[in-house]
Amino acid sequence: MNCFLVDSEATRQQGLELAQILPAGAMLLLSGPLGAGKTALVQAIASGLGITETVTSPSFALAQHYYLENSPTPCLIHLDLYRLELAEAADQLFFQEEEEALTCNALLAVEWPERLSTPPLGAWKLKLSLEGEGRRLQLEAPVQCC
Questions:
Q1: The listed CATH number (3.30.420.40, 3.40.830.10, 3.40.50.300, 3.40.30.10) that belongs to domain 2-119
Q2: In whole angstroms, how large is the CA radius of gyration of the chain?
Q3: What b/e readout covers 51-86, taking b as 16+ CB neighbours within 10 angstroms?
């Protein structure tokens, strides 16, 4: 998928659509410069999944867990690795949250995956880039083995 998002409403609509496309338990790697709309897109995905609580950037908390109403397990785990300059620290947090996401069958959304020592296998890759007054979204499905 490759599309141009003219404004924040287009970004929101695309996030709502992604919530329907991404399978439960998927991993979504979001890359792009600061201000490209990664967190806004995750907020829309969360809304599309039925999450009613406010989704905030996990830049300072590093990880946020979001739940559907009356559910004891998270539906969405949102990581932001921007502040982790050492790949070892990013890897450690990622593997911890990936294990929880797998256990709960939650969507794992990872901002700044380039901080990891190696890109995880089996992930959806989403790149946002600023383009004129809007942004370009490129989505790549996981490569299927064999």
A1: 3.40.50.300
A2: 14
A3: beeebebbeeebbbbbbeeeeeebbbbbbbbbebee
With a cut of 80, say whether residue 59 has pLDDT above it.
no
The answer to whether 75 and 51 are in contact (CB under 8 A) is yes
Q: Per residue in 9-27, pLDDT tens?
A: 999 999 999 999 999 899 9
- Give residue-wise pLDDT tens across range 78-132: 999 999 999 999 999 999 999 999 999 999 999 999 999 999 999 999 999 999 9
Domains of the chain by residue range: 2-119
